[in-house]
Amino acid sequence: MPSLKLASSVVSGDDKNPETKMTRGRPRSHAKNEAIRDAAINLFLEKGFDGTSMDEIARSAGVSKQTVYSHFSSKEQLFTSAIQTKIQEYVPSVALASIENHTLEADMLAVSRAMYDLLVSEEGIKVFRLLNSAAPQGPKLAQLFWDAGPEEMLLRICVFLESWVKKGALKIDNTETAATHLISLLKGQHHFQSAIGLISEISEQESQAHVEDVVKIFLKLYRAR
């Protein structure tokens, strides 16, 4: 198993859900949480993390600053929550929910396509650019993002791969390494070209063909003989 922090919620298959937590003893309002997070991520992407204030987030969300702080104790926590919430849309359990016949190939394609869609999504590319622009200021923001997003997704992919190792369909000595290989292959040139503004759209045909090629390569490397 990987040397990542494996939370009990992941092992049991339960997704982390920031909305179920309590802050300062108050129950959270789903609608206000969503409005605050949406406003925050939009402003972070537009003005950067340091260039965005909690006052601006409150005005954009249509709530008071006090309301923002009653839901999120700091701007860092709000950033983390926004990333975690977005990640939940692409985790393997969500990708696999629509699969009727769970074969190795079908599950690999579903999980890989979800990961690919996250990587090349408009928000995904904007966050990547934001982190690059903030890099000269130090690793603080990058560490927040890594802990809330990529590490969590990597961990979940490891759990997914391990399930097929236990079934005898995959032969993987280190699932963390294999998961990293899969993500790197999925990024390919599409992610890089999108990040530098060389392309603005990727057709469905291109996307699906790329994911199918990646799955073929991955299975050639790791399918149990």
Quick description:
67% of the residues lie in helices and 0% in strands. The chain is mainly alpha-helical. The chain starts with 7 loop residues before the first helix and ends with a helix.
In total, the number of strands is: 0
Instruction: Tally the helices.
Output: 12
Oligomer designation: single chain
Order of helices and strands: HHHHHHHHHHHH
Domain count: the total is 2
**Roughly what is the average pLDDT, rounded to an integer?**
87
What is the CATH architecture descriptor of the largest domain? Answer: Orthogonal Bundle
Biggest sheet, open or closed, and with what strands and sense? none
State the end-to-end distance.
21 Å
Unreliably modeled segments: 5-27
Shape verdict: elongated
Q: Assign the structural class, choosing from mainly alpha, mainly beta, alpha/beta, alpha+beta, or little secondary structure.
A: mainly alpha
Which homologous superfamily in CATH is the superfamily of the largest domain? Answer: Tetracycline Repressor, domain 2
C-alpha Rg (nearest Å) = 19 Å
- Give the proportion of residues in helices: 55-70%
> Beta-sheet strand percentage?
under 5%
For this structure, what is the CATH class of the largest domain?
Mainly Alpha
CATH topology of the largest domain: Tetracycline Repressor, domain 2
Model description:
The chain is 67% helix and 0% strand. With 225 residues, it is mostly helical. The protein is elongated. The two termini are 21 Å apart.
